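Objective 1b. Sequence-to-structure analysis of Gamma-glutamylcyclotransferase.
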Amino acid sequence: MASVDRPGSESGALPFFVYGTLRPGEVNHDLFLKGRTAAEEPARLPDAALYEGPGYPYAVDRPGSGIAGELITAAPGEYAQLLVALDLLEEYAGPGRPGNVYDRVAREAVRPDGSRVRAWVYLAAAPLARRLAETGTEIPGGDWLRR
């Protein structure tokens, strides 16, 4: 399967903002990211909230909130394969697809020094995000590792 986005070159590739099981020390980090990253650094995603899922979290848009995570930069030569692998993991088939569990969107993440970087983040798809807002369990403080 090819990625649903085909950037022209790796030099224009966005890092990934991860906030759950892809964070260092979590199970999917070792399965999907170990040995495939050039950099991993702490960051926050503003205007988002985090909800409990069945063994993993869901992030949703929410102005005024923020979640903790890491910025992951793919190692040289790894971006295209990593994009495909993460799209499959997150059940993302393309923009606006009805079967998406998550939607991959470009958002600004904030490093500890206050600098901002545009990154891919997987947010709960709209139907799921609505259900979470109505009946979901929010993770206080927006940090999956401190739940």
